[in-house]
Design a protein that fits this description.
Oligomer: single chain
Bound molecules: protoporphyrin IX containing FE
Structural class: alpha+beta
Distance between the termini: 49 Å
Number of helices: 15
CATH architecture: Orthogonal Bundle
């Protein structure tokens, strides 16, 4: 029997009776434990429920994830293929991550040639960012942010650092005017919080990007938005707007949480602290280990079966929702049989895999942001300490992402750099 507190939006198939709900408090506390338990019970593919008791299949095996993300015909990307689509209300809270509303026409939910062309255009535009100039921007914005709290001896690093740095530097790369970054950060925060202001936050992001589209159509420049507008693929204004929103959003939360998870590890795990202070090469190695062991992208939605599909030990009917258990795939015991196994490699699934995975130039930008952000933090505040016991740190209540709500730290107060003119407009 389903409890009255848990509204049932669709009829449950037999395959999903007794399945757990992804996103309950136990999941937020320790998703890795939930994935292990599911693996023990069901193997590499588990039936799960989303809020509203909506059934889906969570893929936990590295091999099965590779299969799903590679076979894009069988495990397709258009949300319109979902057979439960019409039964779910328009205000179902997970729609924004599953192709609801405006997002349906975005690059994320296209297939075949259209996807190849639009993803190619985004990759080309992102690849046009000069890596040296981008790294310099990351360092200089990171210095400004550290300057804004260095004198006080304490800071909350999620709100005042990890949340801000990616939007500032990606805003710069995309061509969003500096004076608009502040409101954009507030809009991201509102949208991510998923509360009363989430819709207003989303609308603000859309208005900002629509203004950017108008500007680059009239006065193109050398930024990513102008390059995407000028790409021979010939995007319409709405497609350009959608693909820029995807680029901004896909890169924001992921990069923020990667920086937060890495900094947290550095503060609580001796091996990571050593790795971070040993030298610059070690920073990228330590960051890679975070992608293996504590990736920001836990579960990614989604794929839909275009016809009945055999996956692992189950046969999945056509039109079912598949969730990519990327974090579980990274810790698949079959893959990690040897201790430390593949840790030095980049075979993790944190960026997903196959034609829809995070574009290579985006990965390079993300790595530059996180590396520069952590290096500047360590250079400027070498005696950083967590300001609360590790078990008191709270994680975001998200099904999809693993990121900290707050990261309070203390350190020896230091004066601002000489280049700091005072007054970062953010805080
Ligand atoms: C500057 C930073 C970043 C940018 C601009 C960016 C951009 C993008 C874009 C445009 C896509 C859509 C690709 C497509 O549908 O063809 C995407 C997908 C994705 N990105 Fe990123 N990204 C960034 C950082 C990250 C980070 C740090 C992670 C995780 C560690 C990540 C994980 C993913 C995943 C899991 C997908 C979905 C793949 C799928 O559907 O299979 N991204 N990203």
């Amino acid at each position: 029997m389903n409890s009255p507190q848990k509204p049932v939006l669709v009829e449950l198939p037999d395959s999903h009776r007794g399945a757990i709900v992804l996103g309950d408090p136990g999941y937020h506390r320790d998703p890795a434990e939930v994935f292990s338990a599911l693996r023990r019970t069901y193997g590499p593919v588990a039936p799960v429920l989303l809020v509203g008791q909506v059934p889906a299949w969570l893929v936990l095996g590295h091999r099965e994830l590779t299969q799903v993300t590679t076979d894009t015909r069988l495990f397709a990307r258009k949300a319109a293929r979902w057979r439960l689509r019409e039964q779910l209300p328009a205000d179902w809270p997970l729609w924004p991550m599953l192709g609801g509303g405006h997002t349906e026409s975005s690059l994320l939910y296209t297939e075949g040639d259209e996807h190849r062309q639009r993803a190619g255009a985004v990759s080309r535009a992102l690849a046009s960012v000069d890596p040296v100039e981008f790294r310099a921007q990351c360092e200089s914005r990171a210095e400004d942010l550290v300057d804004s709290f260095a004198h006080s001896g304490r800071a909350e690093l999620m709100a005042h650092y990890a949340l801000l740095l990616p939007v500032m530097v990606m805003g710069w790369a995309l061509g969003v005017p500096t004076e608009e970054h502040r409101d954009l950060v507030a809009a991201f925060t509102d949208q991510l919080a998923g509360g009363d202001r989430a819709l207003a936050g989303h609308q603000h992001i859309r208005r900002t990007v629509q203004a950017l589209v108008r500007r680059v159509r009239e006065r193109p420049s050398a930024d990513v938005a102008s390059r995407l507008a000028a790409d021979p693929v010939g995007l319409s204004d709405e497609q350009l707007c959608q693909d820029l929103i995807v680029t901004i959003l896909a890169g924001h939360q992921t990069t923020t949480y990667w920086m937060g998870n890495s900094t947290y590890r550095m503060l609580v795990d001796r091996r990571h602290t050593d790795a971070f202070i040993r030298g610059r090469l070690a920073v990228s190695q330590a960051l890679r280990e975070v992608l293996w062991d504590d990736t920001p992208t836990q579960v990614f939605a989604g794929r839909w079966t275009s016809r009945p599909a055999r996956l692992g030990h189950v046969t999945i009917p056509a039109g079912d929702l598949i969730l990519l258990g990327l974090a579980a795939g990274n810790t698949d015991p079959h893959l990690r049989a040897e201790p430390g196994g593949l840790r030095g490699s980049r075979a993790y699934l944190s960026y997903s895999h196959g034609p829809h995975s995070c574009p290579d130039p985006a990965r390079d930008l993300a790595e530059t942001i996180v590396t520069a952000g952590i290096e500047v933090l360590l250079d400027r505040l070498p005696d950083l300490h967590l300001a609360c016991p590790p078990e008191q740190v709270r994680w975001q209540p998200s099904v999809w992402m693993r990121g900290l709500e707050a990261l309070p730290v203390t350190f020896t107060p230091t004066p601002p750099t000489t280049r700091y003119a005072g007054g970062t407009p953010w805080i």
